[in-house]
Each structure stands twice: as C-alpha cells, then as structure tokens.
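quick one, 207 residues, struct below
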Amino acid sequence: MLALLEYIFYYKSTMGRTAYFTNEQFVAAALKIAAASGPAAVTIAAVAGEVGAPVGSVYHRFLSRDTLLAEAWLSVVSSFQKDFLEILENGDGLNAALHTPRWVRLHPTEARILLLYRREELAERSWANNLKEKTHRITRDLNYAIRNYVVRISGKYDQATADRVIFAIIDVPYAAVIRYIRQGKKPPKKVDDYIQQTYTTIMERKK
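---
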C-alpha cells in the first residue's frame, strides 16, 4: 500500500516533467543486485535505492518486480546472443564457441545472471505477452541458426550432427567458464585453448 501511494504521488508530481531516470538504469541496477546477492534480493525498493530514485519512478516504468526482472533477463540474453548468432551464421563454429569466454570477461555481472540462474528463478510469475514473444523469438533465432549451421557443414540436417554442434559450441564453453563465474573470477586465457582443443576433437570426429 505504501509503495502504491508513493507511486501515485510520484506520478502526479512528475506529469509533464523531463524523466530523470531511464529503464536502462533500473535494469542495470536489478542485474547488479541479482549478481551480488541473488534474484531474491531484487526488490523494487532495492532497485530504486541503487539508482537513487523514488520507488514510484520504478513502478512508473515497470508494473511489477517480475516485469523488471524479465526485462533484465531478456537484455542479458539479447546481449550475449546477438554476436553469437552473427558468428554462427557466418559459418565460424569455433569462433562461436569462443564467444562465451570472451563475452563473460567483458560482461561479468551479466554472465552471473545468464549462466547461474534459470529464467524461472528471476521472474516466477506469468510474463506479459510481449515479453513471452521476445523469449520465443530468442529461442527460435537460436534454433534456426544452429539448424542452418548443421546444414552448412554437413549438407543436410541430422540430429547426430546437431547434437555434436550444440555440445561443442554451447555445452563445452558453458562448462569451461561456470567455475570461474561462481568464484567471481574472469576465465583465464587457457580456457579458450581448452575450448578450441575440445571443439576440434568433437567436430573433426568422423560419424
């Protein structure tokens, strides 16, 4: 009730004013809190405090905590997947596999969210339809890119090759970096060498 009253007061007092806070600021704050203390620590009040904004200003942009966390999760996935898909669509499977440690080093906070927590742990309740559609589109784009890559390297799509590709470019890089993420460290350069060696072994193996 207190939060609702604060939102109403904020909304009325800021009509016609220039916005001092952005969606991106609140999303970044949510990611920072979740990465440091887990998703449960992300509350509207905590996010507002991190940014230095009134609680009502957060509610003005996000209808609920779940909506904010959903937006945060989608921003992280989109950040990772954008370059990953471009690399894979160019036919460079090894570079796609190495994208994971490179991205983790550049985005340590986001990496903790993407690789340590499931989507359901961030936003437990039903997502808005537009957010569901974004999630489905992300999944479709990934499946489409993998399918095209399999056809590109083998001349046709078959599940055995798809399984090898997924293991080499997704499962292996994830396994290689997750220990460092849990420790709050950036993956050392040797991780790239291990991923490359494993990728070569898996993808050059004859069926």
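The CA atoms of residues 168 and 202 lie 7 Å apart.
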